[in-house]
Predict the structure.
Amino acid sequence: MALVRSALLLAILAAVFIQPAAGQNYLYQILEATVLVADPDRSADELELWAENNGGYALLTSSDRVVLRLPFEQMPRLRSKLEELSDYVLDLSPQSQDLREAILETVAKINSRQEVLRQTLALLDQADAKGTLAIEKEVLTLIEEIEQHTATLQTLNLNRTFSRAEISLRYLEQTLPENIPSSFDWINGVDFYTFIRRGLAGEER
C-alpha cells in the first residue's frame, strides 16, 4: 500500500504545479501562411533558426513546409519575419482558440478525483483483507484517471504557452527567360515576373 500512497502523492503534486496562474494567456494561436520564396530550403532553415533564437522550435522543416511552435508573444514578430523573408505573402490566416474553459474543466476533474482518492484511502484502516484489495483496485483506477487528466492539462498549458505556425513555401524562379522581342509591342512592355506572381495570388483566392 505504500506504493499506492507514493503514487497518490506524485499525482497530487503534478496537478498542483501545472495549474494555470491568473492573468496569463489562455488563447491557443495558430497561423497558417503561404509565402513565395526564391530558395525554399534556405528559407526553411532560416525560419527554424529564427524560431530557436526566439524561444521556439521546429516540429517540421522541409523544402515546401515548415511547422513551428513559438511563444505566443512572438506571433506578431513572425508575421514581420515572413514579410521580410518572402517575395510575396500569398496567404495569411490567423486563428485562435480560447482554452480557459477546457483548462478549468480539466482542473475540476483532477480535483474531484483527488478528493475521492483521499476519501477512499481513509477507508483502508477500517477494511479487512478483502476490502483492502477492492480499495487498492479503486485507488489505482483513480490514480490512472488523475494521470490522464494531468496529461491533458499539460497539453492545454503547452498550447496556450506555445502558438503554432504552419508555413507553406512556394517556389518561383527569379531568373527571367531570355528576352526575345515579340511582334506585339504591348507584350514587350509586360513585366512577366509581376504577371506570374499576380496569377499565383489569384489562384489562392
